[in-house]
Design a protein that fits this description.
Structural class of chain A: mainly alpha
Helix content of chain A: over 70%
Oligomer: homodimer
Order of helices and strands of chain A: HHHHHHHHHH
Number of helices of chain A: 10
Radius of gyration of chain A: 19 Å
DNA sequence: CAGTTAAGTGGACGGTGCGTCCGCTTCTGA
DNA sequence: TCAGAAGCGGACGCACCGTCCACTTAACTG
C-alpha cells in the first residue's frame, strides 16, 4: 500500500499518445521542429490539452520523436565498434568514426531545423533530449575512446561535444541557400572531423 | 527634377534614430538579441511604430548595432595583415589568424545569443547582416588568403564560412551550463581552427 | 449489465510578442 | 505665421504558447 499504484493507462489515452507521436513525426518532418504544437494536435485529431497531457513540453515530444532514430544510431555505433579489428589501425578508426558521424548527419536531414535545435539542447543539457540520446552517446563514446587510445582523437573532446559540434555546424550549413547548403554541410563536417584530431 | 529628393530627415527623426540604436545596444546586451523589440522602443522612449519606421526588421536593427563593432574587427584584420613580415612563416600566420578569431569571439560576448543568431543569419545571407560585415569579411579574407598561400588554411573554406563556423560553435558552447561554457567555447574554437588547416 | 467514479479530453482563455495601420502631432520652409 | 509634409506612437489583428476546468468516457464493481 505504501508503493505507488502503477495502474495501466486507459485505452483512449494510449491511442492518443501514439496518434500524437505519429502526427508529430510527420509535422516535424514537413514544417521543422519549431512547428506549432497546435498543428500537431490537429493532425492527431486531439485537442491541445491532450497533447500537453502526454508531452509536458516541446522538448519531451521532440525527444520522443527522435528516440528511435537515436536508438538506431546507437546500435550502429556498437556495430562499428564491434566490427573493428583487434588493434585497429588509425585509418580504420578514422573511417569508423567518419561513417558514424555521416550517419548521424544524414539522420538529421529528416527534421528541418533539428541541427541548430539539437545543438542548443544538447549543450544546454535539456533533460528530455539528453536522456533520449544517452545510450547513443554512450556507444559513440565507446568508439571515440578507441580513438583516444589510437591517438586519432583529441582526448579533451567527448562524444557529447562531438554531437554538439556536428549539430551546430550542420545546422548553420543547412540554413544556407540551396546551391551552397549541401557542399557546405559536408565541408563543415570535414572541418570538425579534422579538428577533433590531436594537434 | 527626375532625380530623387534627398531631403535631410527631420530633427526629431534623427534624434529618435539614435535613441533607438542606443537603447537597442543596451537591451540586446542585457537581454540578448532576441529581446522583444517593444522593450527597446520603450527604453528609447518611443512607440513601436517609430522603431519600425527606422529599422524595418530586427535584422536591420541588429545589423546597425553590430556594424561598428565589426568595423573595428575589420581594422584589426587589416592591421594584423599589415603587421605580418614580408614572407610570413606558417606560425606567424597561424598566430595572426588565431588572434583575429579570438577577438571576433570575444566581441560576441557582449550580446547574448549572438553566436547562434549570427551563424544562422550569415549562412542564410541575411541582407542587412551580411552587408554590415562585408568590410570586415573582406579584410579577414585577405588574411586568410595569405594562409592559403602559406599552406596553413584549407582553400575550400572562405572567410564567410570561418565566421559561420566560429559563430555556430561558440553559440552552442555558450548555451552550456556555466561551469563548462567557457572552457567549451575555447576548445570548440580550437577545433575549428585546427579543422580549417589543410588535411 | 447497469452504475459509479476517476482518468482523460479538448477547447476556451489569458498572456506575450510580432508587425501594420492610420489619426494625430510636430517640424520645416515659404 | 501658417500649410502641409514628415514623422509619431499606440491600438489592432494575428500567431503561438501553456493552463485550466467542465464535460465525456473507459474501466472496475456489485
Amino acid at each position: 500500500m505504501s508503493t505507488s499504484t502503477p495502474r495501466t493507462p486507459r485505452a483512449d489515452s494510449r491511442r492518443n499518445f501514439s496518434s500524437v507521436l505519429t502526427a508529430a513525426r510527420s509535422v516535424f518532418a514537413a514544417e521543422g521542429i519549431d512547428a506549432p504544437l497546435e498543428d500537431i494536435a490537429k493532425a492527431a485529431g486531439v485537442g491541445k490539452g491532450t497533447l500537453y497531457r502526454h508531452f509536458a513540453t516541446r522538448e519531451h515530444l521532440l525527444a520522443a520523436v527522435l528516440a528511435d532514430r537515436w536508438a538506431t544510431l546507437g546500435e550502429l555505433a556498437a556495430e562499428l565498434d564491434a566490427g573493428l579489428p583487434a588493434p585497429p589501425s588509425p585509418d580504420e578508426l578514422r573511417a569508423a568514426i567518419r561513417t558514424w558521424v555521416s550517419a548521424y548527419v544524414n539522420s538529421g536531414h529528416e527534421y528541418p531545423g533539428s541541427g541548430a535545435g539539437i545543438a542548443a539542447r544538447l549543450a544546454a543539457e535539456s533533460e528530455p533530449v539528453t536522456d533520449a540520446c544517452s545510450l547513443m552517446r554512450k556507444n559513440f563514446q565507446q568508439l571515440l575512446g578507441r580513438g583516444y587510445d589510437a591517438g586519432v582523437t583529441r582526448t579533451d573532446i567527448d562524444a557529447q561535444e562531438v554531437l554538439i559540434l556536428i549539430s551546430a555546424v550542420t545546422g548553420a550549413a543547412r540554413t544556407s541557400p540551396v546551391p551552397q547548403a549541401a557542399t557546405r554541410e559536408s565541408r563543415f563536417v570535414d572541418v570538425v572531423l579534422a579538428g577533433i584530431e590531436p594537434a
